[in-house]
Amino acid sequence: MTDDLTIREPPKLLVPVRVLEGETLPETLVDFLAPAEIVVLGYHVLPEQTPTEQASMQFEERAQAAVDDVAHAFETAGRTVETRVAFTHDRDQTVARVAAEVDATATLLPNPAGEIEDVLVAIRGAIDTDRLADLVATLVGGSDRRVTVWGVAPDDGDFDIEAAVADARETLRERGVEADVLTTEVSASDRPVADIVERSNEFDVIVMGEGDAGLSSLLFGDESERVAEGAIAPVLIVRERHDEA
Amino acid sequence: MDTGYGSGGDENANRTGEAPATVIDPSAEADEASVTESGTELERSIGLVGGLSVGVGTMIGAGIFVFPGLAAGQAGPAAAGSFAIGAVIALLVALPASELATAMPRSGGGYYFISRALGALPGAVVGISIWLGLVFATAFYLVGFGNYAAAVLAEAGVSLGGSGVVVPLALVFGVLLTGLNLFGTENAATLQNYVVGLLLTILVIFLGYGSLDALGVFGSASTPEQFMPFGPVPMFTTAALVFTSYLGFAQVATIAGDIKNPGRNLPVAMVGSVLIVGVLYVTTIFIATSAFGSAALSSFGETAIVEVARAFAGRFGAIAILLAGLLATVSSANASILSTSRAVFAVSKDALLPTVASRMNLKYGTPHVALAMGGGPTLVLIALGEVEVLAEVASFLHLVMYGLICVALVVMRRDEPEWYDPDFRVPAYPLIAIPGALASFGLIAFMQRASQIIGVAIMLAAAGWYKYYASDVSLKGVL
């Protein structure tokens, strides 16, 4: 484990699970995530013709039991876990609401995972480096997992990606990630999302920011979600720090 | 009146021992999600557009695609006034319904308010008769669809042997819509939004062009006709006839449990949908009577609006309006099927019907029993014919519910229980709710005797069922 003093803000992870469809988390992923505070959100998506109240009458107990199973896996790995159960017509709305309510550092988009040895930190633009570093350092701290910080952004001079990658590396070092597991790379790309998806098979977990709500996310959905859909590895989306005032 | 405080003390269960299910913890109500008693969150995910599309989608059919010819024949150009009167009465009910819905934003709509404010017996009568009323209305809309589909085929030169195709077309589409709702992983409600959007676009273009034409922007201004050729009285009796085209705004409240930010969205969706369809109806009559004069319009009967469109834009206009008629009847039928299933759920959750009616299947995530209890009888009614009488019975049953909604508001306000905390309060409520109740019950008096008898018989049967099956169930004031 890292020295706790180096972590400024203990990261909290929101883990959404489609409970009634029997979705479970790979054991290796549970072990990898367990150092963070965990909130398990068991959810079930209904077609709009079904009142959520009706579904909860019939399936609430089953959903709660399934969420408790997932939580139990984390507890075995040495964590007490907060659980939430939700019936919804709109998965994204529910995940975003719960993430805001618990003030999660990051949200997991699950994908199958094997042994977790290589972690990709993908930087596409401005990102909350402190939050990112707290999260990554907490998860990989003290292990021999390799961390690759990869800056991938369009080469149009709007954003100094080299500086952002250097800053992220520096902050990770401060939080206690050893220099010998850290690698940095920078690539120019006009389609960073597609490039991240393409390389996802080289890594076991991807950590990235929410990305901006630009035109393409209006047309094709959230960028980070497109990565999760295309990627082979689980993705952790670091949330922007929302002003709680 | 028996308010449902059963003599069996704390039994509060129906004949088979099922008790009303308390699902949502009323103290944990929020704008974005409700919370059940064991802590499960129920996301509110339908926005204002979804709410408006249920209200407008249910209502839009009849006022434009059935009534213009009939109403102009009875009242002349003053038929526009009849539609305006209808809109005012609908608003008198929509405002109290909005207040009650924001105080009790749960699935079930009118049934829910009435059972909580007036007790289980009136609740059971309204709940069961609205279920049947919606079944009748759905059958009526589907036959309307069959008529328009047959007219489209005729326009396209496809001959399928005359008028015999209406009922088969209606049946096929009824099966399709029920199936879509039963097995639809794609959201039927989202589809509804698109149908209503496309329909409104066609109508706004048509009515915009027609208004400019009627005012003399293109070509010559039409000859002004005397506004009330038959005097003022037919304007009011015609209002009773065309009020059918305002049935549906309260359906917004049946999805209240799933509406986001209900304190704002429910009143805006209910009142807004009445205003939108009211403006469209009045404009339609104005244009139609300007284009043809009410006598000619009357001679075209139920498809008068198609002839109006043909006069403006030739064959293309006629086809566009026929297409709009298809969309309007589909959206009304679909919205009614959705409301039926919610009405059945709300009543069976309270143990007034066997709770098996609120079962759903996990694979498709849809309430298959309740949907079948809506779609099944609808198909039988279409096959048997006689849906027009039943459409008026549907109006009768809706009007009873509307009147009781107004009564429920007065009851709630006169002795406000502690839990009663609506986000929206009707200003000067007695001046709205009392005329609303009188107008709703008053319109029933203008209906055909047969409809009145069938309507009363259904209500008596519902009351009898309650006495037999669930007389120990108490709902008054139970959130």
From TrEMBL, chain A:
UniProt-listed InterPro entries: Universal_stress_UspA, UspA
CDD domains, alphabetized: USP-like
The organism's place on the tree of life at top rank: Archaea
Pfam families registered for this protein in UniProt: Usp (PF00582)
Domain UspA, chain residue ranges per copy: 155-239
Annotated protein name in UniProt: Universal stress protein family protein
Source organism per UniProt: Haloplanus vescus
Organism ancestry: Archaea, Methanobacteriati, Methanobacteriota, Stenosarchaea group, Halobacteria
